[in-house]
Model the fold of this input.
Amino acid sequence: MPAAPAAKKSRRPSRPAPELIFGDLWEFDPAPETADPKLKPRYDLFIGGAFVAPAAGRYFDSINPANEQKLAEIAVADERDVDAAYAAARRAQPGWERLSGAERGKYLYRLARLLQDRAREFAVAETLDGGKPIKESRDFDVPMSAAHFFYHAGWADKLDYAFPGARSISAHGVVGQVIPWNFPLLMLAWKLAPALATGNTVVLKPAETTSITALKLAEILQEAELPPGVVNFVTGAGETGAAVVAHPAAAKIAFTGSTEVGRRIMRATAGTGKKLTLELGGKAANIVFDDAPLDQAVEGIVNGIFFNQGHVCCAGSRLLVQEGVADTVIAKLKQRIRVLRVGDPIDKNTDIGAINSREQLERIRRLVDAGVKEGATLHQPPCRLPAKGFYFQPSLFTDVQQSHRIAREEIFGPVLSILTFRTVDEAIEKANNTAYGLSAGVWTDKGSRILKMSTELKAGVVWANTYNKFDPASPFGGYKESGFGREGGRHGLADYVKLG
Ligand code: NAD
Done:
């Protein structure tokens, strides 16, 4: 073929090639969300419907992980405070359960609506306290929390229909609940709403790095005139959590957090007769077959691992991609993560915000170092991280082996481990080759393959041609070391009642 003639020089400036437009990060003006989070300088415990100082008078600082500045002081609850919280919950429980379901439902509807009224304020508080991008707290955490209260408000007067055939349906009594820091308000809603709808009262401990939205919700509980003692919040670290779990007045313990602490809680409750549900960690496989719509799959992979900085129990942290399309998918992913915006979480353009704490950042770094040492290849796009605060750039690992720590352990950060497979059976075998079993994703054009995969994958949730989709009506929970019990839906409700 003859060589193409040299292009004539145009007088108009030439436009950059399309791939350059895609490959470079556009500059945007800062677009911070400006709603006032209405934070108090100091938060006490919420016991018996009132804010009360902790018995020992101790407080710790809650900081903004985006800039390491102090946001507020949070009370440390010791055993005396936990005891007072259980006493208040015990006093309130019979009256709360005696209310008609419709009356309990009214309170839940009220909480949902008040939360909606203050949605922007709560979204900003959640982002400042936890580091997640404002677009996620605004569009996911807060509306989904309100949706859980609405959903369970609807069940409160329909328990007979939820459990047809039961001769009696009663509450457990007082429930002790301990939650993690990755979705502080949402995990609180997942715990409170079904417990209250079914007539239980609650002592709940938020995670130590993210207590603020729980304490702001306490203000809403007061505004809704929820009877005192129905919900009590005790703040503090692991010791406070252990006191909540150990208290003899707890009829049931509901825990969300790491598998390691879940094991400790299982030991602490063994033989006590306390009911227990555990929502623990995960190492989900996101499986892409060669007939999948690849551009859509790439968006799903990005959402699966970079949503909430990868601080997601069901994160699709192991990508299993069929060999024939592996190079294409990896090339598209590398291109796609170049345009993820990492930075100030309060900015509406930010895709990846701050890592929740220094401790978590160090854990991510340790595991990424281990991946490199074990022989996997690390890919990170050029990325300017803010000088202050805790940040980690989006990262991909190729050349990953099943035995590598990055393929087995929960990194809980924006780090994706990529493995390949040839056949359906190999994909199932590799996906199930984990101690966890919380979630999985399948990308394929074939409905029959989706059905086969969802039957054979040992995971509580299997998403098909999508990822990270949640609904209060849909039960969520794990197999194996991801725990037991379900949250959401009728199955989640069942964990909060005794059936006669
Ligand atoms: P974590 O287990 O360290 O802490 C969770 C909570 O337990 C915190 O409130 C903590 O103060 C408390 N705690 C610590 N020691 C305790 C003890 N001995 N007794 C009682 N409570 C104690 O977990 P984390 O780092 O806050 O959260 C991340 C983990 O949570 C990840 O493993 C993630 O996968 C998991 N998670 C699971 C789900 C799910 O639905 N399965 C949802 C969100 C997060």
